[in-house]
What we know:
The complex is a heterodimer of chains A (284) and B (356). Chain A is mainly α. Chain A is 72% helix and 0% strand. Chain A starts with a helix and ends with a helix. By secondary structure, chain B is of the alpha+beta class. Chain B folds into 2 domains: 230 residues, Rossmann fold, CATH 3.40.50; 110 residues, CATH 2.40.50.140. Chain B contains 9 helices and 20 strands. In chain B, strands 6-7-8-3-9-10 form a 6-stranded mixed beta sheet, with helices on both faces. Chain B has a 5-stranded antiparallel beta sheet with strand order 13-12-11-14-20. A 5-stranded antiparallel beta sheet of chain B has the order 15-19-16-17-18, with no helix packed on it. Chain B is elongated. The interface between A and B is medium-sized, with 18 and 24 residues. Bound molecules: adenosine-5'-diphosphate and magnesium ion. The site of magnesium ion has 3 residues of chain B, from helix 1.
Amino acid sequence: xxxxxxxxxxxxxxxxxxxxxxxxxxxxxxxxxxxxxxxxxxxxxxxxxxxxxxxxxxxxxxxxxxxxxxxxxxxxxxxxxxxxxxxxxxxxxxxxxxxxxxxxxxxxxxxxxxxxxxxxxxxxxxxxxxxxxxxxxxxxxxxxxxxxxxxxxxxxxxxxxxxxxxxxxxxxxxxxxxxxxxxxxxxxxxxxxxxxxxxxxxxxxxxxxxxxxxxxxxxxxxxxxxxxxxxxxxxxxxxxxxxxxxxxxxxxxxxxxxxxxxxxxxxxxxxxxxxxxxxxxxxx
Amino acid sequence: xxxxxxxxxxxxxxxxxxxxxxxxxxxxxxxxxxxxxxxxxxxxxxxxxxxxxxxxxxxxxxxxxxxxxxxxxxxxxxxxxxxxxxxxxxxxxxxxxxxxxxxxxxxxxxxxxxxxxxxxxxxxxxxxxxxxxxxxxxxxxxxxxxxxxxxxxxxxxxxxxxxxxxxxxxxxxxxxxxxxxxxxxxxxxxxxxxxxxxxxxxxxxxxxxxxxxxxxxxxxxxxxxxxxxxxxxxxxxxxxxxxxxxxxxxxxxxxxxxxxxxxxxxxxxxxxxxxxxxxxxxxxxxxxxxxxxxxxxxxxxxxxxxxxxxxxxxxxxxxxxxxxxxxxxxxxxxxxxxxxxxxxxxxxxxxxxxxx
Lengths: 284, 356
Ligand SMILES: Nc1ncnc2c1ncn2[C@@H]1O[C@H](COP(=O)(O)OP(=O)(O)O)[C@@H](O)[C@H]1O
Ligand SMILES: [Mg+2]
């Protein structure tokens, strides 16, 4: 009895500490973003609401020159959204088709090819960034959404997950479909995709967040402000804000940070049910 | 409504397993053929070759006289019911049944009518909007049947369709399958390892052992006139009694009992005497004596189990006798038995060939 009381207490204490530790910076950033630049400059970080919420966020989001030289935060949010969605959807489509080929078309090299794909885990973008840049630049895709997304969408992890899932689908389902005159494409669309939908949802969500948070690749390959993603915006804003010898506009940097964290948080909150389902159960 | 012929059909898997060895068979229009044999004997393989799900290594298959070796499963126009039903889990019962028709480009209104008619026949019309997960085992089984029937195929193929059901349901569905098959008149192949199921369903059955057809014929033919030891021991419940024997001095020597009335049997070859439990009866002057181990009262009759005297310990010498309901023997009792010598069978132990 008392044993379980102390246990409950200590586990909760640990969890609460962890939660404070993780969310305090976000809280401080949010509070600070609602103050005037003078307050921040004079008094440092703020722990409670100031009166400049609408002013700051309006300027950051909608006023040209309010945050960067030209591009607004809403434009950067759109860019990030395109990157996040393109990244996630691209990964799902590519890895699903790869896994489909590997599992269902028994061609000679299926197994070695799978391991080759799997080994690309050892070659993340950071390692091959120079050649990748070279290729994308050569194709004239710098500062484009295509150039931003395509080099990132091959996914060994995704292929692996789909492969494992497809292997667990009973063989008889394929056989029944063959007798029902469903060709390979029909089988994929009518049967495998619906069966994997929770799995697809889970991968989409994870990959959206990963894509949204991409840093190095967008940093290297976007040179024009209009193609900045919001994460790159955060990096660049300090340069922009401290130029010209004016008072640094730290509240805007904080506001940008908050704006950058919001969409992934919302996606995870809204889809968390699907997400958990996708990881723990499947309809087979 | 179709005929199917197999000639010299062989299957070798890539790993070298020779699962089907030279099968010849003619199946006539509307027949229900049962493939029966122990697990791993190749019955599923043979069925799946008919379906087109496995390639044919050697030999030829024809449906209605047309070679189908190279025809894709869908174009063979056969329907299969799988052991685990293989229903599409994300589709409603209606969609499950309609899927094959949709893929064959049938008009929507026709599909609707056809599915409803079939569902009615199988008494699943109330479940059409449910998903398979919301159905009981028996209902899923019906849906699986419905999916096959709705297509009006040339052949029905069943691969142990009842083995996931409980005993009572199994008997019910067995009767129903037989009835439906009669009504629809569709040529069918049914695979099972359960000899009772095989006997009750089949017009003709094929007993398969290690990829070979041991014997093919009507259930009664196989029961009363098995050609091999394997068929004799596989068909019949309770099993046929088998006692090791030798032919010496013009008599059949079984344990320390000599049975007369056999001749022209090879000497010096281990033989096996086979006799069905109903062809043995307690008799005051019987030649065999057993000590009763167990009596099972089945109501209409009773089964007496016991060990035959006069055998050394490591030879099989257990015996089962089907006696009338009146038999009131107790465990431990010694009783004398008479064999109907005319109904006894004699096999070679080495090749399994039947001699008498
Ligand atoms: N895909 C396969 N690859 C290799 N060997 C197989 C395969 N399927 C079945 N076999 C072998 O073929 C034999 C017959 O199998 P199967 O037809 O499934 O038997 P049954 O249905 O009578 O139990 C078995 O020995 C089995 O191990
Ligand atoms: Mg089988």
